[in-house]
Design brief:
Distance between the termini: 36 Å
Radius of gyration: 20 Å
Number of strands: 15
Number of helices: 16
Bound molecules: NADP nicotinamide-adenine-dinucleotide phosphate
Helix content: 40-55%
Length: 399
């Protein structure tokens, strides 16, 4: 596909915190035949990134640099037309992301991002999914910690269960680590626009439901103490559960009737109170422009947890799955790795780009999830890159 394009991959946002880590990962792991380029709005910063990459591997000393500001639509379109794939870390995506999605959908260019902003993903589906289906572009959002471990972890769990019985899966996240400015700004802006995003989600549901092949639901979730884990489970309303359900609607292996619940695991009840209080405080403060601006000014773009902090950070997502039917199988799986937000996110985004560039994948186009677009091939890549996908209990359950 599009072998005549100048590049296989353009990494847009290479001067930012997560974009820089992604560039470093590609410099250390990309195969020699990858034709790639760095893009960003500031030429001087791009040259500094390229110098750093040349120190990792001298082959990259002549890497092409594309100076592109998202406000400059002709430049965004030219970038999208020059490459088979764009991976972008230019966020918050609701503020900066649309021009590139539009350009990729138009040009038939595969698009990857790191968004955890549900309103942005729904708006892009409404505006560009149909065009991308026509052009053949794969628009794959949320290729970082949001939502690869959840989406591919649920997919991996489903592979262990019968495909002809109703399936119930709970995903339980444990995580520690810091936040970058980009993540913090994206969260505040998503909080600020919750009502607008709910309206967009309702419009998408009204149109997207028509294509459902099977029953797909949320499992009823409430805060409760889990005896097996010895911890509190708090329903987690992040984008991850939406992505899992989208994969379930698209792929037959999720069976005739699929339900999913998504939790964060917290050891102490007092910490549950602190978490809920903190989120409520941010939610309220983000509604009013003066307090929102004050919050946004607390962190500067480009900041994030340092290498020492990242080395101490970990995540795991445990999946408890069962089938309801004569076979009544149950299985527990886990996905785990190091620093979720940045080190592993950079790895996940880079491996997703390499997977689209080089692997044999199912045919698909339009807005698709990581499970739909890459499934087994991306799981295999991430395993080789040190992210564990493991059956803890009930191994080999699928007959
Ligand atoms: N869901 C996840 O798992 C996950 C994990 C990590 C990050 N993220 C998301 O990734 C995004 C980036 O995070 P980050 O911490 O890397 O942020 P960051 O350090 O602030 O980087 C933002 C990048 O966007 C670029 N940029 C800003 N405005 C631009 C414009 N008008 N035109 C072109 N480029 C522009 C910046 O360029 P300059 O350097 O020139 O300013 C920089 O390269 C955020 O939305 C964050 O939520 C998600």
């Amino acid at each position: 596909m599009n072998a005549e394009r100048l590049y296989d991959l353009v990494l847009f946002g290479a001067t930012g915190f997560t974009g820089g880590l992604t560039a470093d990962y590609l410099a250390a792991h990309a195969p020699a035949q990858l034709r790639w380029a760095l893009a960003g709005r500031n030429r001087g910063k791009l040259e500094q990134v390229r110098q750093r990459l040349a120190a990792i591997d001298a082959r990259w000393a002549q890497l092409s640099l594309l100076t592109v500001d998202v406000e400059d639509q002709p430049a965004v379109r030219a970038m999208a037309a020059s490459t088979r794939i764009v991976a972008t870390t230019v966020g918050p995506y609701a503020r900066h992301g649309e021009a590139l999605v539009a350009a990729c959908a138009q040009a038939g260019t595969d698009y990857l991002d790191l968004t955890g902003e549900p309103g942005f993903v729904d708006a892009m589906w409404l505006k560009y999914h149909a065009r991308a289906v026509e052009s053949g572009a794969r628009l794959v959002h949320s290729c970082g910690f949001d939502s690869i471990p959840h989406d591919l972890g649920a997919w991996f769990t489903v592979q262990q269960l019968p495909s002809d019985e109703p399936l119930r899966i709970e995903g339980i996240v444990r995580v520690n680590g810091g936040f970058s400015a980009g993540t913090y700004h994206s969260a505040i802006e998503a909080f600020a626009h919750l009502r607008r995003d709910q309206r967009v989600a309702a419009r998408r549901r009204a149109q997207d439901r028509a294509s459902d092949q099977r029953e797909v639901h949320s499992l009823a979730a409430r805060i409760h103490h889990d005896r097996e884990l010895g911890a509190w489970l708090v329903p987690l309303p992040t984008i991850d559960a939406q992505v899992v359900r989208r994969s379930a609607r698209a792929l037959d292996c999720y069976g005739p009737d699929f339900s999913y619940a998504h939790y964060v695991q917290i050891r102490k009840l007092s910490s549950v109170g602190i978490l809920l209080g903190g989120v409520t405080g941010l939610l309220v403060a983000a509604q009013l422009p003066p307090t929102r601006w004050w919050l946004l000014a607390r962190k500067r773009s480009g900041e994030g947890p340092d290498a020492g902090q990242r080395a101490r950070s970990r995540f795991s997502v445990r999946f408890r799955g069962r089938s309801l039917g004569p076979q009544a199988r149950s299985v527990t799986c886990e996905v785990r790795g190091g620093d979720p937000g940045y080190t592993e996110t950079a790895k996940m985004l880079a491996e997703s780009a390499l997977c689209l560039a080089f692997d044999t994948l199912p045919a698909c186009a339009g807005q698709v999830t990581t499970a739909q677009a890459m499934g087994a091939a991306l799981v295999a890549r991430l395993q080789r890159a040190g992210i564990t996908f493991e059956v803890l209990d009930g191994a080999g359950a699928r007959p």
